[in-house]
User: Fold these one by one.
Assistant:
Number 1:
Amino acid sequence: MKCPRCGNDNTRVVKTRTKDDAITRQRCCGDCGHQFQTEEKRLSVKVATRRNPVVAHG
Ligand SMILES: [Zn+2]
């Protein structure tokens, strides 16, 4: 993950927050100290909460 201010690749995660369908991460640049947020969509959240019975394929 690159810093949006200086473009440095040396960033670390300060905080992670999970929402229903996304993960928000607070990141800090190791070079200029700029803090920024990134958001990732969670794709497998519905699979984890709903258990489907095993259905034979075909
Ligand atoms: Zn930076």
Number 2:
Amino acid sequence: MPTAEGLHALVRQARVPVWLPWPLPAGWLVSGFSGAGDERTGARACAMSLSGPNPLGGPADMLIVAEEPGVGLGAGLAGLPGPDPGDGFAASQPNAVVKVANHVAPLWLVESDGKAVFVGEVAANWLWLVLWPDTAGTLLVEPLPLRDLRDLREPAQEFDGPFGAPSTRLPLPSAGGTVPPLSGQAAGPAALARTGRATMAAVLIDLHVHSSASDGTDAPAEVARRAAAAGLGVIALTDHDTQAGVAPARAALPPGLALVPGMELSCQLDGRSVHLLCYLFDPADPALRAETARIRDDRVYRAMAMTQRLRELGADVSWEQVSAIAGDAVVGRPHLARALAASGAIADPGDAFTAEWIGDGGRAFVDRYAPGLASAVGLVRAAGGVPVLAHPRSPGYEVPDAVIAELAAAGLAGIEVFHPDHGRAERDRLTGLAGSLGLISTGGSDHHGTFLPGGPGASPAGHGLGGETTPPAEYERLLAVAGTRP
Ligand SMILES: [Zn+2]
Ligand SMILES: [Zn+2]
């Protein structure tokens, strides 16, 4: 059993922080600690191991390592070739944060089999957090508060437990008051130099992508190819009201890319059009299939009716032309807009989305059937899927906080927080709202190929594949919801 005396001895010799999650997560115990260094240097690496319940069920282990650059304890655990994470590891969005005193420090995920490995830099030392099994990484969905035990050296403050059974996860023998020498590591400048290799690859996850199965410009197979070329690890195909692109995308899936089957359902809120992303539902579910077919059929009738009104307004467009432009895709207003531009009535397809033509409430606009949000959320959950509210702060698609709270009670699983239409302040507010309602925070580019959903005046920023992404820990949560019924 690890003892308080042994721990105090390590704390006195430590040149790097001796991190402890404090307050300890519920049910967690300290199962060991160790240090590495020599008589002259003191401990240049310290490891603390803990054991406790996995938030997703079963037992879990955690190891927290603080070390000077070049020591290589954490990198060895993560299976990296060099002693350090490598340059460029911090180039992407962080995947988790720890709270240290009044600061937060970002951490990035390192790919590793069977465990979740995070690394960041705190006060010029590496901070590694390793969790077994990998699902225990969900402990970092919330910022993890850490204390450096060296700040508690006064006898009255010293940490004295709780301690649990010794861990087998410690990379070095338990310190017990002595610091073992570093194995084969010189303390010179060469050992302190970074490896210079970008060995840290956080998985990039884009959960909102369209193909030509709806209003995107690229065929599903082309979307898959481009996503892999853009360095993405996971994409969700979320065409409007159809899954027709999923099979061809899957057939063309390049190695290293995972495909999440999804759909963006057209819904309504008080007569306004709003969108619901849904993932991993049973495609054979009869109720959801029937509702999706009803939405699609109505899109066709509506597109026909709008074509008729455009003709009445003097535009030289025909239904044959509109349906030829749509091809196999679910016909939508972008196809009408292209026909209208081809007729010469407008200069650019984006000019069609005004009160003059087919903008909401415009002269040639025709409303259509769409289910209410709460009813769609219920259908998706009943089909074993994960409903996520799409871009609730996009102009025209706003969903008020109070409605989001009601939807959460009705089974909504997440909010699309990271979307090109959302500004910094809106992201912060939505992240807070998602946290308070227990909802997942997802992100996606809403990529449509060369078509920009906001029209030609819209900014393409963020709409490239992977332009917005979902934090891996949130993606894990989404996978955990799939197949569960509320
Ligand atoms: Zn949308
Ligand atoms: Zn979309």
